[in-house]
Amino acid sequence: MKPSDPSGHDSLWREEVSFRTADEQYVARRQFGTFLVLTSLGMFVGNLWILAKSWFFQQPLYPLRPVARAGDIAPGAVKLFQYPGEHDPCILVRLGSGEYVAYSQKCTHLSCAVYYEKGRDRLECPCHEGYFSVRTGAVLQGPPPRPLPRVRLESRGDQLIATGITLNPEEI
Amino acid sequence: MAYPPAPQNEKGLPQGRGLSAIDGSITLIVILLIVQMWWLTASLEAYLSGHRESALPAAIVSGILFVVCLLLFLFIRRVDREVRGRQ
User: Structure pTM?
Assistant: First the structure.
């Protein structure tokens, strides 16, 4: 084949646009292969991004914030509050045993608001029927891929103070 | 109008054989890509769950999968050039 430029290489359009039917199959496959490899590169970059986020991760400083008075909530009742920011809804539940637990109210599936179902003693997401254990936040059923982030609570006098958020229930 | 003759490559590889090699390589790349996609999803879920220790092995495995895909792609390019007589 006659080269199209003095350097002896075919120009790009000759590589990518063939006038022979037999060659078109090769061009199409090569272009598809290029697309696949670029997709693979994109996913590798995604993994590198996760690695960078893990290496440079710093535990955020959570504020101390009173969320309720100890006697204000009856066993089996709930209280909604925002923590750590004004746009982070959380749910505080007083269990039948008298213990307090609090979780982020955003379902880990698609961020719908979960609510406490007293009769079944679990947190439920109404959007796709995802159920969470009210004692640990672990997923009991449904599409949520992760447990609910748990709000750490401390009792100081008659005040319940939120002190931080735990993503991994095993850390509790 | 007379069409140009069918391409003759220097090594005499038949067109169909080259296409089979390329199709096989693309199939392998697609399989590796599905594994890599699952790997990225799993490592993202682990990261969001607070398990940050799995990020390094996940990145290494993803890098290996990418390199294998790249090698298969270079193989495709080589077969393409050989069969179409561009070398």
Answer: 0.71
